[in-house]
Amino acid sequence: MASFQRAAVFSLVLMSLLWGSSQAKDLLVGGKTDAWKIPSSESDSLNKWAGKARFLIGDSLVWKYDGQKDSVLQVTKEAYAACNTTNPIEEYKDGNTKVKLDKSGPFYFISGAEGHCEKGQKIVVVVLSQKHKQVGYVGSPAPSPVEFVGPAVARTSSASNLKGGLLVALGVLVLGLF
Ligand SMILES: *[C@@H]1O[C@H](CO)[C@@H](O)[C@H](O)[C@H]1NC(C)=O
């Protein structure tokens, strides 16, 4: 195979990898519109939802709530643990809050309504870096790339599983060509 063709195939695969991981998503916190409230039980908790979702740099979290009664505070790890609403990093109370996850690592949010955080209205999401994801696919074209282990990394969508599978298959194909 001419080296030009190899280069072309390689670029195509690289582009599809980049494209596949750069699609930013809006994620409704809790998975439904009335989810920003005191959870009725442990199994209903927001962190349970976060544990099943997958967050990448560029995705946005979206909250829908009554801005007269509640708010969203982005806080430090310490304030999250202590439910300290005094000096949040950011405060949102417009009832329709969107926060872009612009870096990897944990993001902490608590309710600004008095007493709500103590009763479980809080959430931590761990954002995966896209670089990490790409390295996983390119470096190990096995069916189960090892990913960052944290409270919020499980894949839920079968569509994204399928896409991941296709990318892995493409990777194997290209490795075979070289
Ligand atoms: C809450 O945080 C503020 C500063 O962010 C601090 O001054 C205050 O002592 C904290 N309150 C409690 C109860 O920890």
Account of the protein in words:
There is one protein chain. The protein has 178 residues and is of the alpha/beta class. It has a single domain, classed as Immunoglobulin-like. It is 35% helix and 20% strand. It has 5 helices and 8 strands. It has helices at residues 3-21, 46-52, 77-82, 130-139, 158-177; strands at 26-28, 55-56, 60-64, 72-75, 90-92, 96-100, 105-111, 122-128. Helix 1 packs antiparallel against helix 5. The longest helix is centred in the last third of the chain and has 20 residues, at 158-177. The termini are close together. Residues 133-161 have low confidence and may be disordered. 2-acetamido-2-deoxy-beta-D-glucopyranose binds next to loops. Belongs to the early nodulin-like (ENODL) family. Keywords: Cell membrane, Disulfide bond, Glycoprotein, GPI-anchor, Lipoprotein, Membrane, Signal. It is found in: Cell membrane. Its main location: membrane. GO terms for molecular function: electron transfer activity.
